[in-house]
Amino acid sequence: DVLKSFSEKFNGKYIERKYDEFQKAEFEFEGFKIIFDYHVNYISGTSYQQKFTRVITPFFATDDYKFEIFRNRLFVFFEKIFGSKRFKTGVEDFDNYYIVKTNNEFKTRSLLSDKELRKLIKIHSEINFHISNQKGIWGQKLKKNEFELSFYSEEIIEDINQLKCLLELFQETIKHLVEIYSIQPR
Q1: Contact 77, 177 (CB under 8 A)
Q2: Phi/psi class of residue 118: alpha, beta or left (left: φ > 0; alpha: ψ in -120 to 50)?
Q3: Which of 11, 50, 94, 155 makes the best surface tag, with the fewest CB within 10 Å?
Q4: Is residue 157 scored above 70 in pLDDT?
């Protein structure tokens, strides 16, 4: 099992699949949990299922800061046609490929000024990385001031090096969000 091997290789904790939950790999980092799992959405009434890789870090918010980073070619197409506005980091090669939405441009510019963080984002061609107020990205709304740093990919990532890069992405992001006083462990 990939998540079991991944957790063993990088000093995480593997959690077997339970009746109502998926198997997980959990990592502790500076008081935060970074949780990896493979999530399956079933479409009611059909045999269709969609599989995802999810990475989630629960936290308490100390402010209302949010961001979303994704690569969506369709959004870029509509942006060119209709002139939609999006946040630009000022780093041209990053801005050309990623859409960034935020409610605090100053904090987002500070976050994405980190070259290592941008490098870790670029490793994932179809990234969906954001601060969410929904449990497990698609679940129920969390309580006031409870949020999750979340990543999902519309595929099962089984490459341990790619999973390691996701772990590093979360560690770098957590460090920065703590430095700008936006999060604390839950």
Answers
A1: no
A2: alpha
A3: 11
A4: yes
Mean pLDDT, residues 132-139: 89
Report the Cα–Cα distance between both ends of the chain, in Å, rounded: 29
Q: What is the mean pLDDT of residues 111-119?
A: 93
How many domains, in total, are found in the chain? Answer: 1
Confidence of residue 148 (pLDDT cuts 50, 70, 90): very high
Q: Residue 98: which domain range?
A: 2-185
* 7, HSE (Cβ side, Cα atoms, 13 Å): 19
Is the pLDDT at 78 greater than 70? The verdict is no
Pairing of strands 67-70, 49-61: unpaired
The widest CA-to-CA distance across the chain, in whole angstroms, is: 49
Cβ neighbors of 51 (< 8 A, separation 6 or more) are 38, 39, 40, 154, 155, 156
